[in-house]
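Budget justification, computational time. The allocation requested in the original proposal was used primarily to generate C-alpha cells for proteins on the priority list. As evidence of use, we reproduce two of the resulting records. The first is shown immediately below.
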Amino acid sequence: MRQPKPIKYLLLILLFLLPAQIVAANAIDDLKTDSDVLNLLVKLDTNFLNHGRPYIEVLPTDKLIPTLKCSDIARQWDIKTWEKVDFNNDKLTDLLVTVSDAGSAYVYAIIDQPSGGMKLIRITQGLSHGCQIAKPIWIGNKQMLRFYAESSLYNETTKSQDWTRTDTLIFLYGDFVEFNNKPDNYQVKSVYIETSGCFGTCPVFKLKISKDGEATYNAKSYNPKNGNYRGSVSLDRLAQIKSLINYIGIKMLKDFYSVNWTDDQTALIQIEFTDGTVKTVNDYGMIGSFGLSRLYNLLFDLRRSEKWDWVSFD
C-alpha cells in the first residue's frame, strides 16, 4: 500500500533533522582527537581565531606537561590535556580542556546544558603568569574539580604575595565555586556593589538591592545605559544571589584582595545581614575567590536582565 504523500514527505524531513540532533547531542561524546577538541573550541568562541586561524593549541598531554611551570604537580595529579566529565550530574557529557597560547596554559570547561547549547567557562584566573591546572575528582558521590595555582595575589594580612593555592571546586550557580559542605544560613538584608574603572571599558556602576528585591542602580559609564534607575530584582535571581552569598561563606572571606598588576578593576561589595552584621570585601582584580567572581557576575548580569525605570541623569 502506497503511503500518502504528506506522510512520506514528513518522514523524509524527520530523517534529515535526526542526524543534526544527534550530532548536537553527541558533540562532546564524539570527540576523539586533539583536533576535534580544538575545532569545538573555535566553534564555541570565535575569539580563539586570528585571521580565520586558531591561535591556541590543544597539545597532546606528553607535549603539554613539559611546558607547564608546575609540571611536577601536573604529573603527580595525572593531568590530561582534556577529559570528558559530567560536572553537574545531569547525564550530559562535559569537557575539561587545557589550551596552550604562546607558552601559557589556560584551563576551560565546556558544559553541555540541558536547555540546549554549550557553555564555555574559563577556569584560569587572571593573566596566568604562573601555572594553573585542574583535575576532575570525586568526593563521595559528587563530581568536583581540584584546582592548583601558582600565581600572585597580595595578602593584606601578611603584606606579602601568595604564590600557591589549592582549591576544591564544584559546579553550582552556573559556574565553578569553592566547595562548601556547610553553607551558612544567614538572612541577607541588603546587597551593595560598587565598581571602579580600569584601563579599558570596564563598567562603572553602583547597585543596591534590599531583601525584598527593590533596587537602585547608578550606572556611570560603559553600561547598557547610564543614569540613575530604580527597579525590582526577580525573586528567582534574588534567591540565587542570597543562596550564593551563604554558600561561599562570605563572612569568613578576607576583607581585601588584590592582584599584582595595574590598571585592573576593583569591586567593592557590602552585604548587610538581619543580625546587624556587615561584611565588606574590596577586591582589586575581582578574582579574590571563585565564589566572589561568580557573585560579581550575577550582579553584573542584573544590569541587562532586569527592567530598570529611569529616574535621572547624574
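The second record produced under the same allocation is shown here.
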Amino acid sequence: TLRGTVSDQSGPLPYATINIQNTKSKTISGLDGSFSISLPAGDYKISISMVGYNAKDTTISIINNKVSLLGNIKLNSANDLQQVLVKGMYSAGERKAVAMRRNATAIMDVASADAIGKLPDINAAEAVQRIAGVSIDRDQGEGRYVTVRGTPSQWSSTTINGDRMPAAKTSGDLLGNRTVPMDILPAELIQYIQVVKAITPEYEGDAIGGSINFITRTSPEKRTFRIMGAVPYAERPNDQFGYNGSVLYGDRLLNNKLGFLVFGSINQRTYGTDDYEVIYGNQLHNVTTLDVRNYQGTRINKTLNASLDYSLAPGTKFYARGYYTELLDNERNRKTMHYFDRVTNNAVLRWNVVDYYFKNYGGETGIESALSSKLSMNARLAWYKSWAGYKG
C-alpha cells in the first residue's frame, strides 16, 4: 500500500491526480490532500499532477505486506499560463444589442431579432417575456399584455421607435387605459426590444413599472432576401391547421448610400378554451347561476413594414420608415346559463359571434448627423395611431 499527501504553498491540495505509470492504477487526493492506493510489490514510477500546477514525478519501491510512505509531495504553481482566451461568435444584430446595453445611460436589457428568431414566439408580448423581470397576461392562451417587475400593465410605458405607442379598446373585456395589446405586433416585425426597469430622467415619468421600446426593422448592411413559412397545428377546437408566412427583402444601392427594406407577413391560427363562472346568492354555498362557456376562434394577423435611408454626407443620414399591422379575432362564444330558481329552474343557451378588429400603424422620418466626436444632432417627425372595434 502506498500513502502520501499532496500540497501547495497554501496547504493541502485536494483532487490532485496520482498516476502509477505503465499501469492502470490511479487515484486522486482527498479534501485533506491525502491519498492511498494498493499496489503489489515492485518498483514504480509515480506522477502527481493537477491543472494549474507543474507535474512532479518520483519513484518508490513497494514491499509485500508493508505500507510505503511517499511523504508530502509539494506542487508548484505553473507560471507559464499567461491568459485564458475564450472565443465565440455574435451575429451583427447581437453585437449591436450588446453595444446598446453597454452604452445605455440606464440599466437596460436588449433582445435582438436574431435572438427572438430562435424561439417560436408569435407576437411581441411572447418575445418580450424572455427578458428577466417581464411577464405577460394571456388571452385565449396567447400573450397580450406585458407587466414589468410585477406591476399592473398600465403602469409601464410602451413605445415604438422611441415614441409612445397609442392604445385603443373595443369593449369592457379590454383595458380602457394606457395598456397596449401587444399581440397585434408580430415578433418578426421587431428588430430590437429595449426594456428599462429603473427609469432615468430622459424617460417619461409615468413609467412606474418600466419602459418597453420596440424598434422595427431597418435597412440591412447587405442584400438580404428571406422567405419563411410554417403550418401550425391546433388540437382544439377541431384539429385544425393554420398558416404562417413572411417575406423580407433589403439591399443597399448607389455605393451603399441608399438602403431599403420591405417586409410582409401573415399569420393564421385557431384556438379553443372552456371556462365557467359561478354567481353566488346571499346564503353560504348558495349558487344562483352557473355560466358554462366554450370559446372557439380564429386569429389572423397581417403586417407590412418598409424602411428607407440615404447617406447625405459622412456622418449624416436621412431616413424614413413605417408599418401597418392588423389583427382580426373571430371569436365564437357559446354560453349555457343555468338559473337555479325554485320556481322556473331553467337554463338558457346563447351563442355570441364577435369579430374583434385591431389596427396599429404609423411611421417616422428624420435626419441624424454627427457634427463632431462629442456633438450630434437628431431631428425627427413621427406619427402613430391605434384603432380597435368590430368588423362587419
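A brief technical remark on that second record: The mean pLDDT is 85.
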